[in-house]
UniProtKB/TrEMBL annotation:
The keyword Lipoprotein does not apply. InterPro entries: ERG24_DHCR-like (IPR001171), Sterol_reductase_CS (IPR018083). Gene3D superfamilies: 1.20.120.1630. The chain crosses the membrane at residues 80-108, 129-148, 160-180, 220-241, 248-267, 287-305, 317-336, 392-413. It is a multi-pass membrane protein. One of its GO terms (biological process) is ergosterol biosynthetic process. It holds the Pfam family ERG4_ERG24. PANTHER family: DELTA(14)-STEROL REDUCTASE, DELTA(14)-STEROL REDUCTASE TM7SF2. Coiled coil: none annotated. Belongs to the ERG4/ERG24 family. It comes from Smittium mucronatum. This is Delta(14)-sterol reductase.
Length: 447
C-alpha cells in the first residue's frame, strides 16, 4: 500500500513538472488506470440508481398521495416520464431560468478571481457574482408574488415531477455535450481529468473527461456547482411554502425552520463562492454525469423533500421541540461555517492567526489547532448536524423525510474516504503524522 501511494505521489509530482514544459498529450493527460465506484459496471449502477431515486422520491411524495404511501407503479413512472418529455412549458420555464442565470453570470458585477494553477501551468479566472445572481432572482420572484399572488409558485409545486424529469434530461444532455466536446480539436492540448480519462465510454461519461469545459468563457462546471441547482433549491422550497399556504392557509413553524435554514445554507455557499475554487470538485474532478446530475437534478429534487412533505402535511411542532431544532440548526451551521472559515483564513492569509500547524514536505501546511485539532473533518460533522435539524423539523410522522440525513451521511463518509486517499497521496508520511496528532475523523473521542 505504502509503495503504491508513494509511486502515485511521485507520478503526480512528475506530471506537474512535465506539464509546465509543454509535453505531449499522453504525458499531460495520462490514462486513468485506477477506478472508483467499482469501475464501469459500478458507475452504470450509480447512474441508474440516482435517476430512479429522484423519480421514486417524487412518486412517494406528491400532491396526489400527500407523501403517505406509494401511489405509483412502474406504469405510472413510464407515463410520467413521457409526460415530462412533452411538458413543453416546464421545459421552456427551465430553459428561461438557466438562460437568465447565464446572463447574470456575464453581466453581474463581482470580483474576478483566479483558480488554482493547473497541471499545464494555466490559471483560469472566475466571476464571483453568484450571490448577486441569487438575490436578483429571488427579488424577481418576490416582486411577482407581490404583484400577481402565489399562482406561479403553486404552479411550480404542482408541476414538480415534470421539473424533476426536465432537470434529469438536462443533466444527460449536458453530460453528453461535454463528453463529446472533450474530443474537439484545439490549438492547445485540452486538460483532461486524471480520473475520467480511461477510454471507457460510460466510466468517462460519468466521471467527466474534461477538467474545465468552457463555452464562450462560461465555465460550465463552476456555473453548475452553485447556481441553477442551489438557487433552484431555494426557489423550489419557496414554491412549496406557497403550496402549504394554499393548502392550509398558513406557513407552519416547521416549514419556516426547514426553509430558513436551507436558504441560509445556500446563501452561505454563495457568499463564500471563492472557496469553491479550492474544492476537489473544481481542482480534480472532471465534469460529467456525476456532477451534472448532482448539481442540476439531484439537489433541487432531493434536497427539497422536507419542504415538499410539509406542503402537504401541516406538521405542528411543540414550542420546546421547535427551539431544540432551531438550536441544533444554529450549532450545526456554526461548526460548519467556523471550521471552514478557519481553514480558509489559515491557507489564504498564510497563517495570520498564528495557528498551530504541521509542516509537510509537499509544501502545504496542515492545521492542528482549533476546529481542525478536534477532528479531521469537523466541517462535515457541522454540515451533517445542520441537515439533521432540517429533517427533525418535519417531525416523526414519516421516515421519508429522514432520507436526506441517511444519504448525506453516506455522501460525507465516502467523500471523507476519497479525501483521505487524496491527502495520503499528496502528503505521504506527513499525513500519517497528522493523523496521529488529529486522531478522529468526525467526532472527537468517538470516530
Ligand atoms: P474540505 O473543505 O474539508 O477540504 C479538504 C481539503 O482540505 C483536503 O483535501 C486538504 O487539501 C485540506 N486539508 C485537510 N486537512 C487540513 C488541515 N488540517 N489543514 C489545512 N488544510 C487541510 O472538503 P470539501 O471540499 O469536501 O468540503 C467543503 C465543505 O462543503 C464541507 O463543509 C462539506 O460539508 C461541504 N459539502 C457539502 C455538500 C452538500 O451536498 N451539501 C457536498 C460536499 C461538500 P490540500 O490538498 O489543500 O491540503
Amino acid at each position: 500500500m505504502g509503495s503504491k501511494l508513494e509511486s502515485r505521489k511521485r507520478s503526480t509530482e512528475a506530471l506537474k513538472e512535465t506539464s509546465k514544459k509543454g509535453l505531449k498529450e499522453s504525458e499531460l493527460n495520462p490514462k486513468t488506470l485506477e477506478f472508483e465506484f467499482f469501475g464501469n459496471d459500478g458507475v452504470k449502477f450509480v447512474m441508474v440508481s440516482m435517476s430512479l431515486v429522484v423519480m421514486l422520491l417524487e412518486s412517494v411524495c406528491n400532491g396526489e398521495n400527500k407523501c403517505v404511501g406509494f401511489s405509483g407503479s412502474f406504469s405510472y413512472l413510464v407515463d410520467w416520464f413521457s409526460a415530462g418529455i412533452l411538458y413543453l412549458n416546464v421545459i421552456g420555464v427551465y430553459i428561461g431560468y438557466v438562460s437568465w442565470l447565464v446572463v447574470l453570470y456575464f453581466i453581474c458585477p463581482g470580483e474576478t478571481v483566479k483558480g488554482t494553477t493547473l497541471r499545464n501551468g494555466d490559471v483560469l479566472t472566475y466571476p464571483t457574482n453568484g450571490l448577486l445572481s441569487a438575490i436578483l432572482t429571488i427579488l424577481v420572484v418576490i416582486a411577482d408574488v407581490y404583484l400577481n399572488g402565489i399562482g406561479k409558485m403553486v404552479w411550480v409545486a404542482d408541476n414538480f415531477k415534470h421539473f424533476v424529469v426536465t432537470t434529469l434530461f438536462a443533466s444527460v444532455l449536458l453530460s453528453l455535450y461535454v463528453y463529446f466536446m472533450s474530443f474537439r480539436k484545439s490549438s492547445k492540448t485540452l486538460l483532461l481529468s486524471t480520473s475520467g480519462n480511461s477510454g471507457i465510454f460510460w466510466y468517462d461519461f460519468f466521471m467527466g473527461r474534461e477538467l474545465n469545459p468552457r463555452l464562450f468563457n462560461l465555465d460550465i462546471k463552476y456555473f453548475c456547482e452553485l447556481r441553477p441547482g442551489l438557487i433552484g433549491w431555494i426557489l423550489v422550497n419557496l414554491a412549496f411554502v406557497a403550496k402549504q399556504y394554499q393548502n392550509f392557509g398558513e406557513v407552519s413553524v416547521s416549514m419556516l425552520l426547514v426553509t430558513a435554514s436551507q436558504i441560509v445554507y445556500v446563501l452561505d455557499s454563495l457568499v463564500f463562492e471563492k472557496a469553491l475554487l479550492t474544492t476537489m470538485d473544481i481542482t480534480t474532478e472532471g465534469f460529467g454525469f456525476m456532477l451534472a446530475m448532482g448539481d442540476l437534478c439531484w439537489v433541487p429534487s432531493v434536497y427539497t423533500l422536507q419542504a415538499r412533505y410539509l406542503s402537504y402535511n401541516n406538521v405542528q411542532l411543540s414550542t420546546f421541540f421547535s427551539i431544540f431544532v432551531g438550536i441544533l440548526s444554529v450549532v450545526g451551521y456554526l461548526v460548519f461555517r467556523f471550521s471552514n472559515l478557519q481553514k480558509n483564513n489559515f491557507r489564504n492569509s498564510n497563517n495570520a492567526g498564528n495557528e498551530k500547524f504541521l509542516e509537510t514536505k509537499a509544501g502545504s501546511k496542515l492545521l492542528i489547532s482549533g476546529w481542525w485539532g478536534l477532528a479531521r473533518h469537523i466541517n462535515y460533522t457541522g454540515d451533517w448536524l445542520l441537515g439533521l435539524s432540517q429533517c427533525l423539523a418535519t417531525g416523526f410522522g414519516n421516515p421519508l423525510t429522514y432520507f436526506f440525513s441517511m444519504y448525506f451521511l453516506i455522501l460525507l463518509l465516502h467523500r471523507n474516504y476519497r479525501d483521505e486517499i487524496k491527502c495520503h497521496n499528496k502528503y505521504g508520511k506527513d499525513w500519517d503524522r497528522y493523523c496521529s496528532i488529529v486522531k478522529y475523523r468526525f467526532i472527537p473521542y468517538i470516530y
